[in-house]
Amino acid sequence: MARSAAEQLQKETGVPFSQKEENYTALIKATAEKQGCVFFEDSGEGRDLETDTLYLEDVSGWLAPIGTPEKDAKKDENYRFAEWKKCENGEFVVEFKRYDLPKNETGY
């Protein structure tokens, strides 16, 4: 019987796929906390990369000050993209970026 890709990878690295996702989520959370914020995830945005210990993907969501209830954080001005990048030293970091859409003639 054939093993799934996740099972095969776990066998090779010893780190379950779900743990790799949790490790990346923890990195996003820690990055937000360093900025005095909390990040409420909306959706994955692609640019996936899997390492021995992390499953990385750019993620969109709301970045708001710590203590902000999720329902209050979900405003357009708080919407950010958590984008990963690999530093020269091999470390992975997360940067929160905002992309504003151009406004049309009506201001929307």
Question: Which descriptors apply to this entry?
Answer:
108 residues, alpha+beta, four-stranded antiparallel β-sheet, 3 helices, 29% helix, 36% strand, globular
Overall shape: globular
User: How many β-strands, per DSSP?
Assistant: 4
**Fraction of residues in helix:** 25-40%
Main sheet specs: 4 strands, antiparallel
How far do the termini sit from each other? 55 Å
Order of helices and strands: HHEEHEE
Q: Which stretches are low in confidence, meaning pLDDT under 50 for 5 or more residues running? A: none
SS content category? alpha+beta
The percentage of residues in β strands lies in 35-45%
Strand arrangement in the largest pleated sheet: 1-2-3-4
How many domains? The number is: 1
Instruction: Return the average pLDDT rounded to an integer.
Output: 87
Specify the number of helices.
3
Radius of gyration: 17 Å
What does this structure look like?
The chain is an alpha+beta fold and 108 residues long. The protein has one domain. Helices cover 29% and strands 36% of the residues. It is built from 3 helices and 4 strands; from the N terminus they run H-H-E-E-H-E-E. Strands 1-2-3-4 form a 4-stranded antiparallel β-sheet, with helices on one face. Strand 3 and strand 4 form a beta hairpin. The chain is globular.
Please write out the topology:
Blueprint: H1 5-13, H2 17-34, E1 37-50, E2 55-65, H3 70-73, E3 79-86, E4 92-97
Antiparallel strand pairs: 1-2, 2-3, 3-4
